[in-house]
Every structure is written in C-alpha cells, then in structure tokens.
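ok so I'm stuck.
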Amino acid sequence: MLDDWSNRSRSCVPRKVLGWRVLRFSRAVLGLVPVAFALVACGRLAFPPVPDGKPTELPRSRTATTWTDTHGGTLELKPDGTFTADDVCGNFFDLDVDDLKNGPRSGSGTWRDSDWKGQTSVDMSFKADGVSFGYDALRDGKTLKLWTYVGDPDEGRPLCILTPR
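replied:
not stuck anymore, here's the structure
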C-alpha cells in the first residue's frame, strides 16, 4: 500500500481520460461561439450603432437654437434654460412611475447642458408632468446632431435624430 504523501503530485485520472475531458470542454466552448455570433447579429448582445458623426462639445450659444426631427417635430432650446417642444421625438422617462413614454411629445420645461468626455449632453424636463429626456451631440462634417435611442435599443426601433433648423 502506498502512503498518501507519495501520490499527492500525481493525478488520479489517467492521461488518456484527461485528454478526452479537455476535448469535450473545447467542443462545448466552440459550439457556443456560433450562438454568440447569432445573438450579436440579432442585436441581443450589442447596442445598435449610433448615427454617423463624432461626439462633439457644443457651446451653450450653439446648443440654444431650434432643432427639428425627421418627422417635422421641433425642439426650441432657449438661452435662458427653457424649451418648447412640438411633437418632438425622444426617449421620455417619467420618474414618478418609473415608466418610458416613447412617442412624439409637446410641451415646455427646462433644460441644461453638460460636457463629459468630449461630448455635450442636453438634459430636459417637462414642466407639466416632470417627464425627463436627453440627447447627445454629434458632428457629421458640418452637420450638428442631437440624438437618442427610442425605447429599448435591442428592439430595433429607429433612432431619434435632431438637426438645427
């Protein structure tokens, strides 16, 4: 009978069996790779791309203007920190009921801008019901854009893109 001290450095599993375990594990991992690629292709593991353009910082004087979306909605950002919206697209979030309200909205409220990592973000809140929303700034050549996802990015909804009027 062998003592316990002499067998501690040896594996109890023969090399032949150990090789098959490694091979089975490798096959399982390789079998999951196509599944991961399929999920990415369907947009389930990655956000859809942002609009064309590069993140940019906008001076407040350039941000405070009238912006329009592709469906004719307008957002007027005034220099005094107020805004007026007329059927503008966005990703509207109601803090009181923890609910998204996605669809064109009209109304007025307040806005503020902030710069972080070379990009301006514009955050707004409707006066009537406190629903908040925001946009990020991009520059595509000479064209400025404010944009946001609408709803869950994985659902394939169109982006909300505003350009200066």
